[in-house]
Structure formats: C-alpha cells, structure tokens
Fold:
Amino acid sequence: MNGFQIVVCGSLVPDPLQTLEPVTTPQGPGLKNETMLPSVLDPWSAHALYEAANLAKQAAGSKVYLVSLGPKAKLQQLMMTVAQKVPFELVALDGSASGFTDAHGVAAALADAIAAIPGLDKSRLLVFGGCASASRDAGVTMQLVCERLGIRDFFAGVDEIKAAEDGSFAVLERIEGGEYLASTCKGAPAVLAWATGNLPEPPNNPQVGMANMRGVMPSLMKAKPTPAGVGGIAYEATEIPPQKRQTRIVKDASTDEIAKEIVEWINN
Amino acid sequence: MSKTLALLHSQADGSLPKAALETLTAAAALGQPFDVAILGAGASAAADAVQGCGAAAFYTVDDPAVAQPRYATDAAAATALIQASGAEPVLAPGTSRFARSLPGDDDYPE
Structure:
C-alpha cells in the first residue's frame, strides 16, 4: 500500500480561557468582541491533527491535509503557531468559524473542499476531525461529512488507530462505562472523529513551520469565500450556562467518615 | 405532531439500556400516541419486554448485521425503522451507538 491521504477537518475556536459573552449581532448570534478574541485550534481537531501526523509518519507515503473553515485573517494568525507543530498542507476556506453556524452547512463546505483536493485517491482516504467542538458540541459534523463523501465507515470518539501493512487498521472508540469498542476496518476510505487520542501536543519545530508556510500562504491567498450561516435557524436567546459547583471542600475528615459518606451516597 | 417515535437499541445481552428506558418514558410522558422502534441483538425480545408501555406500534430490526454497533448498518437500520413508522419527531437515547450513527442517518448524494 502507498500510504494514506489523511484529511483533517479543523478550525479555530475562541481561546477557552477567555470570558465569552453571547450577543445578538446584525448578522445573527455571535460573541461579544468576537473578532478581537484570541483564537486557538479547536482542541478536538488538534488531537486529530497530531494523530494524523503520527499515522503519516508510520505509514510511508502518507500525506496530511488540514481543511480549515474560518475567517482568513484569523486563520493566518492561527497558522503561525499550528504550522510549527506537524507537517501538513493547508486547504483554507474563508468563512465563519462561529459556534452558531449550522453543522449541515459546515459539513457541505468541508466535504466539497475535500472532494476538490487535487489527486485525491478515495482508496487511500482517511478523514479525521474532532468528535465534538469546543465552540459547539453538536457532535454531528463529521458524520455529515462522511455521508456527503459517500463513505460508509465511520468511527466516533476515537482514541487510537493502528494501521497494518495491508492498509487495514484497528480503532478504539470510547463507549459507555469507560470502556472501548474495538473494531478492525479492512481499509480506507473511512472517517474518524477523534476524542483526545493518546499523543501530547508536539513541540514547535521551526523547520516544519518553514516548510508548511510555503503552502500556507498561497492557500490563504486563494481561500474561497464560503458562506456557512446559521441555516435559517432563529435563536430567541443565548446565554452561558450557570456555573454549578457540585463539590465541597472538607478538611481533616477521617477515612471512616469519608467511607461512610461514600456508602450513603451509593445507597441513595 | 400527531405521533412520536421512540427509537431505541438493545445491548449485547438483548436488554434495553437505561437511557433507552428513559427515552421510552419521555415519549410516553408527552401524552401523544407514539411508536417504538428497536434495533440490535434480541430486539424482538426487547420489544416484548416493553409491550405494556402503551405504544401504538412496534418495529424491530433483529438481525446479526446489527448485533454489533457499526455506523453503516446502524444508520441503515434506523432509517428503515423511521420510514416504516412515519412518525415524527423521533426521540432517541444519547448513547455512544446512536451518537455515532444517527447524525448520518440522512439521504445525501453519493
């Protein structure tokens, strides 16, 4: 086998350490000062990207693409850091990365962009993405991309992929009760929506950054305007969920007291 | 909303998971007529086990192809069940099996 073509779908989200305030704008719902908020690569997509790079390293002849839908200027900022992590070729789409965009519209844009990648070989195609998003936890976009690309194998909440010499691969998916569903797939094409995977964030590598930026800038220059709106949905109101602390801090409790409380909690 | 569908799946041992029973309770609590559809191993027996829930009709896919959770077969079975019932809206438990397969349960051009 000649390696995989691994396409990672991932875009930016507001830095989760920021205070986010939903507001209604003339263009629909959004975040207060959205354009000013610092952005990071969506953490779920980041895991997918690092796993893709790791798989590409193991399967000779593989190549990683990053398909990213977001405001062009913000994508450019984001690439200054992301491009230093792992080798990839960027396919940029200039549009909204808001958490209020409709998953169907986003999926259509991503699927069209993937299908248009020059030299795409479906028999080697693995599409990676996050199983959710830090900006909108719908958890449906990758399935919709899968359907639009006509791919029939989909795995959700993936934490591990192990490829064999013959192109087949084994996948671990998170399921209930802290367990894994282990599957084997005969080979590409397939879509994998990643949970956290097992890899740490790679350190910045300036050489990788230099190599990536040669493709990043042209990709940003020719990024197509991609309208991905709210899909005709009217939001009556938006608000941040109230913070609920369900823990309490008790100092100097004895082991017996702690055990007694746990038993009472289980019995109730 | 004339009729609701409670779309459920069984577990490996043929029983319904707790989340499925909660979905069934929610469908009944709406106070509207509802159908029950179940896919998975032992789906027919699972349907028998909840026969007294007040559903207007039961639909099942009980086949080795859906004994194990798998995207393509689960999505195809769910589509068939939803179409057979014709009811909407569809209520389903947010289990890993349905979180995987139901979002793709739609018709798109290949």
Remarks:
- Chain A has one domain: 5-225.
- The mean pLDDT of chain A is 90.
- Chain A touches chain B through 20 residues (CB under 8 Å).
- The domain at 5-225 of chain A is CATH 3.40.50.620 (Rossmann fold).
